């Protein structure tokens, strides 16, 4: 928006001039610590707001990402393993951070998003593309950021919700908190379970035959605690804990024997941090301890795993000018693994140092230059620089158009399984990626209450030393640095917000065209060159609307997932599918402080028969009803 000139100010009434002067004389405020995303200029970032998260409060991060983004979540069934693919890479190429610290399972090198309840965080962000200079190992395809930023001066508040749904679904959640100018506390607990004995249809010689799913029940609970304390105008302390526990029966493939497989996943995450912010300097220190337990058993196999991770981070930011800052820091990780299948217990250390530079030569031009070097045991990780730029080159009173660009190198350290499994290779080289992206962002606000934001991004990325598990001469699978993979594509998104009297509309559409292929391999790599990788849809899209009128809400979500090959040959594939979900709710205000909301949700409303992963049944039409009571 254009600012008033001095001449215009002189023409204003005297009372208006005094009001402007009073607004400009702001009281002393507390300086906020700068987030790492400040140094991610030129990258595409999606933020899921409270409106989207509220409808999946008793669900998982997998539920909200699959519904509100075009990201492909490979789902083995409701409550089952849910792995992510960003820009045509695998789940091992996505870093998942909780309050700035990587929580991916060190043994597998990835996160199961079905084990991450939404109650553990109040904000979910997805940064697309390489970001190893900011977030370290695995940030090749993208990064998922889970956090719970403090809400200051809100006073006491509480909310409780209970939900019943199809196939024995029961879910309960409780969240409470308090904050003033110095203390912010949030406690959140959730529990969900389901029998998942849903009917599904299979095409047989006689036609479509209906079966009922067996061995697919699950039970899951989560407890999250966040505390932030301000001591003076410049210092802030933080403590957080996130405990999760899931006991799942492993859904068998359609047509296969039931081996009564079952898996127990437990995670304990503890974090403490301190920030000191002065006029030109900022210092941050964080330490964390994680423990991940994964125990699997079936009629034939029993496997137990326990991995403990200790992490420490420290950084210092120098602000040379209001438009220039430099952050230097280091981090250390210690892994202690006790895994059935390893020949011995594993203890190892990893280190990294980084430098982040942000410079805004003009109010409309933002530049970043970042650098990270990791030290890995027994191997050398590549140096990972990042350059980013964003230029707002056109602006009127109602519109703004910007161009952005980013170039980055990234890496992924081999997982513990890839190195220490009996058939693993301790000499595996780290994977290395080189990516470029560029695009346009457009903002249009023709009037008060109406805003439209659009973004178009194109990208190109090469990943070298891509690790693939392949059978050896004895039929044993072993990991090898076998290939170079090229991922390229286009991402587009538009989001509309409109308010008219007591009606509010939020609508968004996201589309992704993703081409991911092996472009170079070696003689012992049987997969063909220039073939779209398995389980990477070429086209994906998501369209959502959120309507609010008086005390009613109505939301619709329409997602499309394109055809996916299920192997490297390109001869077998799963058809694309379109899912329609909807939510309707009504809030009753009992007193000024108390309110109750009833939500009715429907899933797969078109009763579509589909598969996200080969031979894994998905439920037909289903629904749930919930009651939420809020106090503030």
Automatic annotation (TrEMBL):
InterPro entries: Beta-barrel_TonB, Beta-barrel_TonB_sf, Plug_dom, Plug_dom_sf, TonB-dep_rcpt-like. Signal peptide: none annotated. Residues 49-143 form the TonB-dependent receptor plug domain. It is found in: Cell outer membrane. Residues 217-605 form the TonB-dependent receptor-like beta-barrel domain. Keywords: Cell outer membrane, Membrane, Receptor, Signal, TonB box, Transmembrane, Transmembrane beta strand, Transport. The keyword Transcription regulation does not apply. PROSITE patterns: TONB_DEPENDENT_REC_3. Gene3D superfamilies: TonB-dependent receptor, beta-barrel domain, TonB-dependent receptor, plug domain. It is a multi-pass membrane protein. It holds the Pfam family TonB_dep_Rec_b-barrel. Belongs to the TonB-dependent receptor family. This is TonB-dependent receptor.
